[in-house]
Specification:
alpha/beta; Rossmann fold; FAD/NAD(P)-binding domain; 2 domains; 6-stranded mixed sheet; 23% strand; mitochondrion; NADP
Protein backbone atom coordinates (compact mmCIF):
# COMPACT_ATOMS: atom_id res chain seq x y z
CA UNK A 1 0.00 0.00 0.00
CA UNK A 2 1.32 3.46 -0.93
CA UNK A 3 2.12 5.51 2.19
CA UNK A 4 0.43 8.87 2.61
CA UNK A 5 3.69 10.68 1.95
CA UNK A 6 3.86 9.15 -1.51
CA UNK A 7 0.21 10.03 -2.07
CA UNK A 8 0.99 13.58 -1.03
CA UNK A 9 3.75 13.69 -3.65
CA UNK A 10 1.18 12.70 -6.25
CA UNK A 11 -1.09 15.55 -5.19
CA UNK A 12 1.73 18.11 -5.16
CA UNK A 13 3.45 17.08 -8.36
CA UNK A 14 2.50 20.37 -10.01
CA UNK A 15 4.65 22.32 -7.56
CA UNK A 16 7.97 23.05 -9.33
CA UNK A 17 10.26 22.29 -6.41
CA UNK A 18 8.54 19.04 -5.49
CA UNK A 19 8.13 17.82 -9.07
CA UNK A 20 11.87 18.24 -9.64
CA UNK A 21 12.48 16.20 -6.52
CA UNK A 22 10.31 13.37 -7.81
CA UNK A 23 12.13 13.24 -11.13
CA UNK A 24 15.40 13.22 -9.20
CA UNK A 25 17.32 14.74 -12.12
CA UNK A 26 16.97 18.51 -12.06
CA UNK A 27 16.58 19.02 -8.31
CA UNK A 28 20.19 19.92 -7.54
CA UNK A 29 20.34 22.62 -10.21
CA UNK A 30 17.05 24.08 -8.98
CA UNK A 31 18.42 24.13 -5.46
CA UNK A 32 21.55 25.99 -6.54
CA UNK A 33 19.44 28.68 -8.21
CA UNK A 34 17.26 29.36 -5.17
CA UNK A 35 17.80 32.28 -2.82
CA UNK A 36 16.52 33.40 0.56
CA UNK A 37 15.22 36.78 1.66
CA UNK A 38 16.35 38.26 4.98
CA UNK A 39 12.89 37.87 6.54
CA UNK A 40 12.44 34.24 5.44
CA UNK A 41 11.28 31.72 8.08
CA UNK A 42 13.64 29.32 9.81
CA UNK A 43 14.52 26.56 7.34
CA UNK A 44 15.99 23.23 8.37
CA UNK A 45 17.24 20.35 6.24
CA UNK A 46 17.12 16.86 7.71
CA UNK A 47 19.45 14.27 6.20
CA UNK A 48 17.86 10.87 6.85
CA UNK A 49 14.23 9.83 7.30
CA UNK A 50 14.29 7.42 10.23
CA UNK A 51 12.85 7.93 13.72
CA UNK A 52 15.65 10.29 14.81
CA UNK A 53 15.02 12.64 11.91
CA UNK A 54 11.23 12.59 12.20
CA UNK A 55 11.12 13.06 15.96
CA UNK A 56 13.64 15.93 15.87
CA UNK A 57 11.65 17.61 13.10
CA UNK A 58 8.45 17.13 15.10
CA UNK A 59 10.00 18.79 18.15
CA UNK A 60 11.27 21.79 16.18
CA UNK A 61 8.04 22.17 14.18
CA UNK A 62 6.08 22.31 17.42
CA UNK A 63 8.18 25.05 18.99
CA UNK A 64 9.49 27.34 16.24
CA UNK A 65 6.77 29.41 14.54
CA UNK A 66 6.83 29.28 10.75
CA UNK A 67 9.62 26.72 10.48
CA UNK A 68 10.07 24.96 7.14
CA UNK A 69 11.53 21.44 7.15
CA UNK A 70 12.88 19.55 4.13
CA UNK A 71 13.80 15.91 4.75
CA UNK A 72 16.25 14.20 2.37
CA UNK A 73 16.44 10.43 1.92
CA UNK A 74 18.58 8.38 -0.47
CA UNK A 75 15.82 5.77 -0.83
CA UNK A 76 12.55 6.50 -2.62
CA UNK A 77 10.58 5.88 0.60
CA UNK A 78 10.94 7.13 4.19
CA UNK A 79 11.10 5.69 7.73
CA UNK A 80 14.59 4.13 7.75
CA UNK A 81 14.98 1.07 9.96
CA UNK A 82 11.33 1.22 11.01
CA UNK A 83 10.50 0.20 7.46
CA UNK A 84 13.54 -1.91 6.61
CA UNK A 85 15.00 -3.02 9.95
CA UNK A 86 12.07 -4.48 11.89
CA UNK A 87 11.30 -8.18 11.67
CA UNK A 88 8.12 -8.92 9.64
CA UNK A 89 6.50 -10.64 12.63
CA UNK A 90 6.82 -7.42 14.69
CA UNK A 91 4.22 -5.18 12.99
CA UNK A 92 3.46 -3.37 16.25
CA UNK A 93 6.96 -1.84 16.24
CA UNK A 94 6.07 -0.09 12.98
CA UNK A 95 3.10 1.74 14.52
CA UNK A 96 5.22 4.88 14.87
CA UNK A 97 4.90 5.25 11.09
CA UNK A 98 1.42 6.65 11.72
CA UNK A 99 2.99 9.50 13.69
CA UNK A 100 5.57 10.07 10.97
CA UNK A 101 2.78 10.22 8.36
CA UNK A 102 1.07 12.84 10.51
CA UNK A 103 4.27 14.91 10.69
CA UNK A 104 4.85 14.61 6.95
CA UNK A 105 1.31 15.75 6.17
CA UNK A 106 1.99 19.20 7.64
CA UNK A 107 2.20 21.96 5.00
CA UNK A 108 5.59 23.13 6.30
CA UNK A 109 7.20 19.69 5.83
CA UNK A 110 8.51 18.20 2.57
CA UNK A 111 9.91 14.71 2.12
CA UNK A 112 12.47 14.53 -0.71
CA UNK A 113 13.26 10.93 -1.59
CA UNK A 114 15.70 9.32 -4.00
CA UNK A 115 18.22 12.08 -3.28
CA UNK A 116 21.66 11.40 -1.81
CA UNK A 117 23.72 13.97 0.04
CA UNK A 118 27.31 13.61 -1.15
CA UNK A 119 27.03 9.98 -2.26
CA UNK A 120 26.51 9.39 -5.99
CA UNK A 121 23.21 7.81 -6.99
CA UNK A 122 22.97 4.39 -8.58
CA UNK A 123 20.51 5.22 -11.35
CA UNK A 124 19.63 7.96 -13.81
CA UNK A 125 16.61 8.82 -11.67
CA UNK A 126 18.72 9.29 -8.55
CA UNK A 127 19.88 12.79 -7.65
CA UNK A 128 23.02 13.73 -5.72
CA UNK A 129 23.49 17.03 -3.91
CA UNK A 130 26.89 18.12 -2.67
CA UNK A 131 26.84 18.88 1.03
CA UNK A 132 28.29 22.36 0.70
CA UNK A 133 25.59 23.23 -1.85
CA UNK A 134 22.83 22.00 0.44
CA UNK A 135 24.07 24.07 3.36
CA UNK A 136 23.84 27.33 1.42
CA UNK A 137 20.05 27.18 1.45
CA UNK A 138 19.21 26.41 5.08
CA UNK A 139 19.59 27.95 8.49
CA UNK A 140 20.28 24.53 10.00
CA UNK A 141 21.17 21.05 8.81
CA UNK A 142 20.40 18.00 10.94
CA UNK A 143 22.32 14.79 10.30
CA UNK A 144 20.13 11.82 11.23
CA UNK A 145 21.11 9.30 8.58
CA UNK A 146 21.74 6.39 10.91
CA UNK A 147 24.21 3.55 10.39
CA UNK A 148 24.44 2.21 6.86
CA UNK A 149 27.22 -0.32 7.39
CA UNK A 150 27.87 -3.21 9.75
CA UNK A 151 30.99 -4.02 11.71
CA UNK A 152 33.26 -6.77 10.47
CA UNK A 153 34.93 -9.47 12.54
CA UNK A 154 38.23 -9.18 10.69
CA UNK A 155 39.13 -12.87 10.93
CA UNK A 156 40.42 -15.34 8.30
CA UNK A 157 37.77 -16.68 5.95
CA UNK A 158 35.29 -13.87 6.54
CA UNK A 159 35.74 -12.30 3.12
CA UNK A 160 36.84 -15.38 1.16
CA UNK A 161 34.34 -18.11 2.07
CA UNK A 162 30.74 -18.16 0.86
CA UNK A 163 27.90 -18.76 3.30
CA UNK A 164 28.88 -15.92 5.66
CA UNK A 165 26.31 -13.13 5.72
CA UNK A 166 25.76 -9.77 7.36
CA UNK A 167 22.71 -9.81 9.63
CA UNK A 168 22.05 -6.22 8.56
CA UNK A 169 21.78 -7.33 4.92
CA UNK A 170 19.59 -10.29 5.85
CA UNK A 171 17.19 -8.01 7.74
CA UNK A 172 17.08 -5.65 4.76
CA UNK A 173 16.56 -8.62 2.44
CA UNK A 174 13.48 -10.00 4.17
CA UNK A 175 12.08 -6.45 4.52
CA UNK A 176 12.48 -5.56 0.85
CA UNK A 177 15.34 -3.03 1.11
CA UNK A 178 16.37 -2.44 -2.53
CA UNK A 179 20.11 -2.65 -1.89
CA UNK A 180 19.73 -6.09 -0.28
CA UNK A 181 17.49 -7.72 -2.88
CA UNK A 182 20.41 -9.54 -4.50
CA UNK A 183 21.44 -11.39 -1.32
CA UNK A 184 22.38 -14.97 -2.21
CA UNK A 185 21.20 -16.92 0.82
CA UNK A 186 20.97 -20.68 0.37
CA UNK A 187 19.45 -22.57 3.31
CA UNK A 188 18.44 -25.67 1.37
CA UNK A 189 21.59 -27.55 2.42
CA UNK A 190 22.12 -25.92 5.83
CA UNK A 191 21.21 -27.72 9.04
CA UNK A 192 23.38 -25.82 11.55
CA UNK A 193 23.39 -22.03 11.58
CA UNK A 194 25.68 -19.81 13.63
CA UNK A 195 24.62 -16.27 14.55
CA UNK A 196 27.54 -14.28 15.95
CA UNK A 197 26.27 -11.56 18.27
CA UNK A 198 24.08 -11.15 21.35
CA UNK A 199 21.79 -8.28 20.40
CA UNK A 200 18.16 -8.11 19.32
CA UNK A 201 19.09 -8.23 15.64
CA UNK A 202 20.89 -11.53 16.26
CA UNK A 203 17.78 -12.94 17.94
CA UNK A 204 15.57 -11.62 15.14
CA UNK A 205 17.65 -13.56 12.61
CA UNK A 206 17.59 -16.68 14.80
CA UNK A 207 13.81 -16.43 15.16
CA UNK A 208 13.28 -16.01 11.41
CA UNK A 209 15.34 -19.15 10.80
CA UNK A 210 13.30 -21.17 13.30
CA UNK A 211 9.81 -19.72 12.85
CA UNK A 212 7.03 -21.83 11.34
CA UNK A 213 6.77 -20.91 7.67
CA UNK A 214 2.97 -20.65 7.92
CA UNK A 215 3.39 -17.92 10.54
CA UNK A 216 5.73 -15.99 8.25
CA UNK A 217 3.22 -16.23 5.40
CA UNK A 218 0.87 -14.03 7.44
CA UNK A 219 3.46 -11.24 7.68
CA UNK A 220 4.69 -8.65 5.18
CA UNK A 221 7.92 -10.58 4.49
CA UNK A 222 9.07 -10.44 0.86
CA UNK A 223 8.10 -13.28 -1.46
CA UNK A 224 11.74 -14.04 -2.22
CA UNK A 225 12.62 -14.36 1.46
CA UNK A 226 9.55 -16.50 2.09
CA UNK A 227 10.54 -18.84 -0.74
CA UNK A 228 14.09 -19.17 0.60
CA UNK A 229 12.95 -19.82 4.17
CA UNK A 230 10.38 -22.36 2.99
CA UNK A 231 13.25 -24.42 1.58
CA UNK A 232 15.36 -24.11 4.72
CA UNK A 233 16.68 -27.26 6.39
CA UNK A 234 18.04 -25.42 9.43
CA UNK A 235 17.43 -27.46 12.58
CA UNK A 236 19.88 -25.89 15.03
CA UNK A 237 20.83 -22.26 15.61
CA UNK A 238 23.82 -21.28 17.75
CA UNK A 239 23.63 -17.70 19.08
CA UNK A 240 27.24 -17.03 19.97
CA UNK A 241 28.64 -14.29 22.19
CA UNK A 242 32.13 -13.26 23.25
CA UNK A 243 30.79 -12.64 26.75
CA UNK A 244 27.92 -14.12 28.77
CA UNK A 245 24.15 -13.69 29.22
CA UNK A 246 24.60 -10.99 31.85
CA UNK A 247 26.56 -8.89 29.34
CA UNK A 248 24.26 -9.51 26.35
CA UNK A 249 22.34 -6.59 24.85
CA UNK A 250 19.23 -8.54 23.80
CA UNK A 251 16.01 -7.78 25.64
CA UNK A 252 13.36 -9.92 27.28
CA UNK A 253 10.75 -9.56 24.52
CA UNK A 254 12.98 -11.14 21.88
CA UNK A 255 14.08 -13.94 24.22
CA UNK A 256 10.49 -14.75 25.18
CA UNK A 257 9.46 -14.99 21.55
CA UNK A 258 12.19 -17.53 20.84
CA UNK A 259 11.20 -19.53 23.90
CA UNK A 260 7.58 -19.69 22.71
CA UNK A 261 8.23 -20.82 19.14
CA UNK A 262 6.22 -23.90 18.28
CA UNK A 263 8.25 -27.13 18.28
CA UNK A 264 11.50 -25.27 19.02
CA UNK A 265 13.55 -26.14 22.10
CA UNK A 266 16.13 -24.11 24.01
CA UNK A 267 19.24 -26.07 24.93
CA UNK A 268 20.64 -25.63 28.46
CA UNK A 269 23.15 -22.79 28.76
CA UNK A 270 26.13 -22.31 31.08
CA UNK A 271 24.30 -21.69 34.38
CA UNK A 272 27.50 -20.63 36.13
CA UNK A 273 27.39 -17.37 34.16
CA UNK A 274 24.20 -16.33 35.97
CA UNK A 275 23.83 -15.79 39.76
CA UNK A 276 22.27 -18.67 41.66
CA UNK A 277 20.05 -16.20 43.50
CA UNK A 278 18.35 -14.21 40.75
CA UNK A 279 16.53 -12.07 43.34
CA UNK A 280 19.78 -10.20 43.92
CA UNK A 281 19.68 -8.75 40.40
CA UNK A 282 18.07 -5.49 39.27
CA UNK A 283 14.47 -6.04 38.17
CA UNK A 284 15.05 -5.98 34.39
CA UNK A 285 18.04 -8.33 34.58
CA UNK A 286 16.22 -10.60 37.02
CA UNK A 287 13.23 -11.03 34.70
CA UNK A 288 15.45 -11.69 31.68
CA UNK A 289 17.56 -14.29 33.48
CA UNK A 290 14.41 -15.99 34.80
CA UNK A 291 13.22 -16.47 31.22
CA UNK A 292 16.56 -18.00 30.24
CA UNK A 293 16.62 -20.30 33.25
CA UNK A 294 13.02 -21.42 32.70
CA UNK A 295 13.76 -22.28 29.07
CA UNK A 296 11.45 -23.02 26.17
CA UNK A 297 7.81 -24.05 26.12
CA UNK A 298 8.80 -27.13 24.12
CA UNK A 299 11.37 -29.43 25.80
CA UNK A 300 14.48 -29.53 23.66
CA UNK A 301 14.52 -33.33 23.84
CA UNK A 302 11.27 -33.56 21.86
CA UNK A 303 11.57 -30.47 19.66
CA UNK A 304 12.25 -30.77 15.94
CA UNK A 305 14.37 -27.60 16.01
CA UNK A 306 16.53 -26.02 18.70
CA UNK A 307 18.63 -23.00 19.58
CA UNK A 308 21.30 -22.28 22.12
CA UNK A 309 23.26 -19.47 23.74
CA UNK A 310 26.92 -20.32 23.28
CA UNK A 311 28.66 -17.88 25.61
CA UNK A 312 32.30 -16.92 26.02
CA UNK A 313 33.24 -17.83 22.45
CA UNK A 314 35.22 -15.30 20.42
CA UNK A 315 35.34 -16.00 16.65
CA UNK A 316 38.85 -16.79 15.44
CA UNK A 317 38.68 -18.46 12.02
CA UNK A 318 36.09 -19.54 9.47
CA UNK A 319 36.91 -22.90 7.91
CA UNK A 320 35.87 -24.75 4.77
CA UNK A 321 36.22 -28.48 4.18
CA UNK A 322 37.73 -30.77 1.57
CA UNK A 323 34.47 -31.29 -0.29
CA UNK A 324 33.69 -27.56 -0.55
CA UNK A 325 36.84 -25.56 0.27
CA UNK A 326 35.32 -22.24 -0.82
CA UNK A 327 32.24 -22.50 1.45
CA UNK A 328 32.11 -22.14 5.22
CA UNK A 329 31.69 -25.45 7.04
CA UNK A 330 32.77 -24.66 10.60
CA UNK A 331 33.93 -21.82 12.83
CA UNK A 332 36.84 -21.90 15.25
CA UNK A 333 36.38 -19.89 18.44
CA UNK A 334 38.71 -18.80 21.20
CA UNK A 335 37.21 -19.75 24.55
CA UNK A 336 37.10 -16.65 26.74
CA UNK A 337 36.80 -16.03 30.45
CA UNK A 338 34.91 -13.25 32.21
CA UNK A 339 36.63 -11.32 34.97
CA UNK A 340 33.29 -10.92 36.77
CA UNK A 341 30.54 -13.07 35.16
CA UNK A 342 27.67 -11.29 36.93
CA UNK A 343 28.87 -7.77 36.12
CA UNK A 344 27.16 -6.42 32.96
CA UNK A 345 30.33 -4.49 32.10
CA UNK A 346 32.79 -7.29 32.83
CA UNK A 347 35.94 -7.50 30.78
CA UNK A 348 36.88 -10.72 29.01
CA UNK A 349 40.15 -12.45 28.25
CA UNK A 350 41.23 -15.42 26.16
CA UNK A 351 41.98 -18.69 27.94
CA UNK A 352 44.25 -20.07 25.24
CA UNK A 353 41.75 -22.82 24.48
CA UNK A 354 39.66 -23.12 21.33
CA UNK A 355 36.55 -24.92 20.15
CA UNK A 356 34.89 -25.53 16.79
CA UNK A 357 31.19 -25.30 15.92
CA UNK A 358 29.71 -26.76 12.73
CA UNK A 359 28.55 -23.84 10.59
CA UNK A 360 26.63 -24.58 7.41
CA UNK A 361 25.69 -20.91 7.31
CA UNK A 362 26.91 -17.96 9.39
CA UNK A 363 25.32 -14.60 10.21
CA UNK A 364 27.49 -11.78 11.54
CA UNK A 365 25.59 -9.49 13.92
CA UNK A 366 28.19 -7.55 15.89
CA UNK A 367 26.87 -4.05 15.40
CA UNK A 368 26.01 -1.36 12.91
CA UNK A 369 28.32 1.49 11.96
CA UNK A 370 27.77 5.03 10.73
CA UNK A 371 30.14 6.51 8.15
CA UNK A 372 31.07 10.08 7.34
CA UNK A 373 29.31 11.78 4.45
CA UNK A 374 31.45 12.91 1.53
CA UNK A 375 32.24 16.58 2.07
CA UNK A 376 32.44 16.51 5.87
CA UNK A 377 36.16 17.28 5.97
CA UNK A 378 35.94 20.01 3.35
CA UNK A 379 33.46 22.04 5.39
CA UNK A 380 35.01 21.38 8.78
CA UNK A 381 32.79 18.65 10.26
CA UNK A 382 34.81 16.17 12.30
CA UNK A 383 33.80 12.50 12.31
CA UNK A 384 35.03 9.92 14.83
CA UNK A 385 35.71 6.88 12.64
CA UNK A 386 36.41 4.63 15.62
CA UNK A 387 33.06 5.32 17.31
CA UNK A 388 31.19 6.00 14.07
CA UNK A 389 29.71 9.31 15.23
CA UNK A 390 29.79 12.99 14.34
CA UNK A 391 31.63 14.93 17.05
CA UNK A 392 28.98 16.62 19.20
CA UNK A 393 28.32 18.05 22.65
CA UNK A 394 25.94 15.27 23.70
CA UNK A 395 22.90 17.50 23.18
CA UNK A 396 23.03 17.32 19.40
CA UNK A 397 25.15 20.36 18.58
CA UNK A 398 27.97 19.38 16.22
CA UNK A 399 31.36 20.44 17.56
CA UNK A 400 34.94 20.48 16.36
CA UNK A 401 38.35 20.69 17.97
CA UNK A 402 40.22 23.86 17.02
CA UNK A 403 43.72 24.99 17.86
CA UNK A 404 44.18 27.90 20.23
CA UNK A 405 47.35 29.61 19.02
CA UNK A 406 47.40 32.04 21.93
CA UNK A 407 46.98 29.47 24.70
CA UNK A 408 49.03 26.84 22.90
CA UNK A 409 46.34 24.18 23.13
CA UNK A 410 43.00 23.23 21.61
CA UNK A 411 39.36 23.54 22.53
CA UNK A 412 35.95 22.40 21.32
CA UNK A 413 33.70 24.88 19.59
CA UNK A 414 30.17 24.59 18.28
CA UNK A 415 29.69 24.36 14.52
CA UNK A 416 26.93 26.94 13.94
CA UNK A 417 23.70 25.61 12.49
CA UNK A 418 24.77 21.97 12.31
CA UNK A 419 23.18 19.27 14.47
CA UNK A 420 22.94 15.48 14.74
CA UNK A 421 20.55 12.93 16.20
CA UNK A 422 20.18 9.18 16.53
CA UNK A 423 22.89 6.66 15.79
CA UNK A 424 25.17 9.11 14.00
CA UNK A 425 25.12 11.13 17.23
CA UNK A 426 25.43 8.37 19.85
CA UNK A 427 26.47 5.21 18.05
CA UNK A 428 24.21 2.28 17.09
CA UNK A 429 22.38 1.72 20.33
CA UNK A 430 18.88 2.11 21.70
CA UNK A 431 15.31 1.32 20.69
CA UNK A 432 12.69 3.60 19.15
CA UNK A 433 11.58 4.98 22.52
CA UNK A 434 15.10 6.01 23.52
CA UNK A 435 15.74 7.37 20.03
CA UNK A 436 12.66 9.56 20.40
CA UNK A 437 13.86 11.01 23.70
CA UNK A 438 17.32 11.62 22.27
CA UNK A 439 15.80 13.31 19.20
CA UNK A 440 13.75 15.58 21.47
CA UNK A 441 17.00 16.58 23.20
CA UNK A 442 18.51 17.60 19.87
CA UNK A 443 15.28 19.34 18.87
CA UNK A 444 15.30 21.33 22.10
CA UNK A 445 18.90 22.40 21.44
CA UNK A 446 17.95 23.64 17.97
CA UNK A 447 14.93 25.52 19.34
CA UNK A 448 16.96 27.10 22.15
CA UNK A 449 19.72 28.23 19.81
CA UNK A 450 17.30 29.73 17.29
CA UNK A 451 15.06 31.53 19.77
CA UNK A 452 18.03 32.87 21.73
CA UNK A 453 19.66 34.35 18.64
CA UNK A 454 22.51 31.87 18.25
CA UNK A 455 24.63 31.60 15.11
CA UNK A 456 23.24 29.59 12.23
CA UNK A 457 23.89 28.90 8.59
CA UNK A 458 22.60 31.25 5.91
CA UNK A 459 23.09 31.89 2.21
CA UNK A 460 25.87 34.41 2.74
CA UNK A 461 27.71 32.50 5.47
CA UNK A 462 27.54 28.81 4.57
CA UNK A 463 31.22 28.00 4.99
CA UNK A 464 31.28 26.73 8.56
CA UNK A 465 35.08 26.66 8.62
CA UNK A 466 35.04 30.39 9.39
Amino acid sequence: MMCSIARRFRRLDTVPRVSSVISGRCFSSALQQSSRSPDAPFRMAVVGSGPAGFYTAYRVMGKVPGVKVDMYESLPVPFGLVRHGVAPDHPEVKNCQDKFDEIASQPNFTFIGNVSIGHPGNSSKHCTIELHNLMQHYDAVLFAYGASEDKKLGIPGESTLSGIHSAREVVGWYNGLPGCSGLDLDLSQAEEAVVIGQGNVALDVARMLLEDIDVLRRTDITEKALETLSKSRVKRVHVVGRRGPMQASFTIKEVRELMKLRDVGFLPFNRSLVPEDLKSLPRASKRLMEVLVKGSSTPHETASKSWSLDSCFSPKHFLGNQDAPSKVASTEFDITELAAPFDPKSSVKATGKTTILPSDVVFRSVGYKSVALPGFAEIGIQFDDRRGVVDNDGLGRVTRMVSDTHAGGAHNERVPGVYCAGWVKNGPTGVIASTMQDAFTTGDAIVHDWLSGGRFLNASNHDIRR
